[in-house]
Here is the input.
Amino acid sequence: MSLSGNWYLALSAVLFAIGAFGLLVRRNVLVMFMCVELMLNAANLTLVTFARMLNDIGGQALVFFVLVVAAAEVVVGLGIVVAIFRRRSGEGTTADDLHIMKG
Amino acid sequence: MLGVLVVQVAVATKVDAAVFAIAAFFVLVGAIGVVVARNPVHAALMLVMTLFGVAVLFVEQQANFLAAVQVIVYAGAIVVLFLFVIMFLGVDRRENIAFEPLRAQRPLAVGLVASGLAGLLLLGVAAHWSVGAHSVAGQLRGQPGGDVAALGRAVFTTYLFPFEATAALLVIAVVGAVVLVRRPPQARRPDREQAAAPGGDGPPGDRTAGDVVGDPMDALAQAVANAVASGLVSLPEDLPEGQRQEEPVGESAAP
Here is the structure.
């Protein structure tokens, strides 16, 4: 018998919290992206755990789609980062540099 | 809660508990490493560690196919994409983490995240973690072919339409990425003449970051331009004059 699902859910809650903390604290846009990936992985782990606990394949199918969306999100997000970096001619990739809309 | 968990650990086999403990250790160390690493390259490598740990936890929970996809897509593609962009932009230098312009941000973040996590865990203790109907989209266990076949059947029957929609999503993402990193044609031409001029190529160190960034992408942009010219893809800027003028009129009439 495998370990109780509660452990997995607690672990994914902690993982999500670490990702959220990093997203709030870090200023490098690329590291912020990685923290979003951490949060997505925490959600994926939760879905797989629920799929096992409820004996339902739907959770795993949802993880499949989350993976696709995460890949698309990273591609477009990094494209935006490259475009911003190029337009600003290499001043840096921190979120503080993107203050053009500041009133 | 803790007593219940300890009893459950005793019921579970020791191997499962050990695998979970080791994988959880790597997941948490990797996640903390992503947050505290000064160098973005180190953060990306720490992310790989977390992703492998999550893949092990997937295997542990009968999600073999997703574990393989996790390693191939996340560790193999997404992290490589991250590293590629980090190297590409030349931002792999150490960052001063101790400097924080907004003084209230870190305590506020700690408070928000800690209260959210505590609320979530307390909710889990007070209520059942998972409630709901069992096996709506098909059973996970006891299927012929195991979880891989069960997942394939679910994706290609119950979730066929979302699966088709992801194909459109991926195409849109690819086209969007190419359009985003494309240089405007005016900026591209003098650059190319410079590169073609004899003696214009200095050592790579002499180039500015913008030049290094642009070169490989020119091929992609050229491919898009060719596709536009051959009528495969239509970009907004390539619309005929009449259509381009109609658009603002339609927007203003819409509300």
